[in-house]
Structure formats: structure tokens, C-alpha cells
Amino acid sequence: MVKTTDDQATAAFWDDFAPDYVAAQNESRLPITADLTAYLTQQNILPLTSVLDVGGGAGRFALPFARVAQQVTISDISQQMLNFAQQAAMQAGVTNLKLQHEAWSQIPPQPQADVVFASMLPLAPTELQKFSQLGRHFAVLNRAVTHTDSISTALQQLLDLPPVAEPTNDAAIFSEYVQAVRQLGYQPWQQTFTYHLTEQVTREMLVAELADELTPPQQRLFQQWLAEKFAQRDELTVQQTYVFKTLLWRVELQ
Questions:
Q1: Is a pLDDT exceeding 50 seen at residue 254?
Q2: Which residues are in the Methyltransferase domain (predicted)?
Q3: Structural domains in the chain?
């Protein structure tokens, strides 16, 4: 049950955003879920264990985990996201998945599973003590820390644009997590997953993204750049880089 006003607002946001979020998630070409599942299996963290996926949403990580672990529980503030997870589990024939509709703030600070996991959960470093207490043996945090693409970088330099604030560019908070975990007395280790993808963009796509935000001098530079780049082609190839970092530490029962 959602209790606080802030929790209610957060739940309403994710309930409304869930269809678009899940659609984008399903279209992703990044193999992070498979790679992280394989890594945790190799580290003997997943096999024959129970997992609590905090803020697990529609089951992006929980479903692959459930193919390896004994039992996986998704805890999420959004009932609509959990509905998507349930549908996906049924379609995949996954039967060892449990759903819990609750806010992070409402989870009791005591062991809930052998492994506590979260990906992109907006935790403050001060909340890592409680997060650690949810696991009997391991705690695992996964975050996307870098996303760059070649055209955005080139245009930012050409037009003197400020860097785009992206939730996936989260290297600073990850460093704070490492420090906070060490201050709690744990010995964390890290694993990095880097992916390079390409996609095609058209002149129209770039104009729709940028044109309305530019000053007249920037507009002139932008139009010159477009004329040069699209002089003999209909599309440009964008080189994209995504970096994920996973922080892991062994926890002990107190």
C-alpha cells in the first residue's frame, strides 16, 4: 500500500508512464540483462538463491534472473509496471516470480532475500545501509553511467551547446555509492559493461530535435553543417556508446 503523498505522486507518474517505458525497454538493443545475468551466475551470486529486485518495474532484469535463481521477487511502487511484469512472466512461462506492490520506503530494513538487487533505483548514498540490510548474502546495484553519441557531441562543440542532462549519465552518483558502501564497512567490487551501437538519422530528425532551441547565429551554423553533411546522402550514421556499471558487495547478517 502506498501511504505518503510523495509515494502517491511517484506511483501515479509511473502508472501513467508505464506503457511508453515498457515499449522503449522492449525496443532496446542493449544486451545488458543477458550479460549481467551471466556475470552474476559466473560469480555464484544467482544460482539457487532468492532475489529481491527493488524497483524492478516490468521485470527487465527479474525475468532473466528467474531463469537462474530459485525465486525472484519484484518490489515496485507502480501497480501498472507490475501488471506488465506479470504479463511478461506468463508469456515466458516463468512461474517463480513474485510481485510486491510497495514503495521502497515501506520495505522493512531486514533481510528479504539472499540477494538484493536494483537497477537505476534513485537511491541516495545515505540509503545504502538499508539497502544492504535487505540481503542475506549479497547486494547488487546496477546503473547506466554514460551515454554519448557522435552527432550530439559534434553539434554541442560546433554550436557551443550545454551538455544534455541525461539520467543515464550518472557516473558521479556511482562514485558516491562506492564510497558509501566502503564507509559501511563492506568491500565492494565493480563490473563494467560497455556497448557500441550505430543508428541512422535523417536531416529531418535532427532539425526536429534542435532547430527550435537555437539562436539565429546558431541556426546559421546548424544549417551550414546540415548542408555539408547531407550534401550527398540521405542519412548519417550515429555512433553511440553506453556504459553500465554494477557495484556488488557481500553483506553479513548482524
A1: no
A2: 51-128
A3: 5-143+167-195+244-250 (3.40.50.150)
Per-residue model confidence as pLDDT tens digits over 156-204 = 999 998 776 555 557 788 999 999 999 999 999 999 999 999 999 999 9
CA distance 226 to 124: 42
Lateral strand order in the sheet of 135-149: 97-101, 71-76, 50-54, 113-119, 135-149, 235-250, 189-202
**Cα distance between residue 252 and residue 138, in whole Å:** 8
Give the whole-angstrom CA distance, residue 181 versus residue 145. 18
User: Distance (Å, rounded) from C-alpha 59 to C-alpha 62?
Assistant: 5
The string of pLDDT tens digits covering residues 69-85 is 999 999 999 999 999 99
Determine the length of the chain: 254
Q: What is the pLDDT of residues 118-159, one digit of tens each?
A: 999 999 999 999 999 999 999 999 999 988 899 989 999 999
Whole-structure pTM value: 0.89
